[in-house]
Amino acid sequence: MGGDVAAEIARLKDGPGGDILQYGFGRLSHTLMHHGLLDELRLWVHPFFVGKAGGDGLLFREGTKSMFDLVETKAYTSGVVLLSYRVKASAGS
To answer: Which intervals of the chain form a coiled coil (predicted)?
Structure first.
């Protein structure tokens, strides 16, 4: 996908078909949030940390503000917890 990614994603969302699913995060996730195209966020919380993140390795950066409502939680026997959040509609939408 090239060109105006946000416009292309908006076009796909307005068309027929099912949900659009993206795994992972990075620049595309930030673009989707910035343009109000992210509908739901699912965080898989693992009970350990490895290495360090910086730059594009961070999901939320300074200047980014998004509000979410927790809609579902699921705990697995491995200790992993899935937290599903729906993006709150902004006052202007």
So the answer is: none
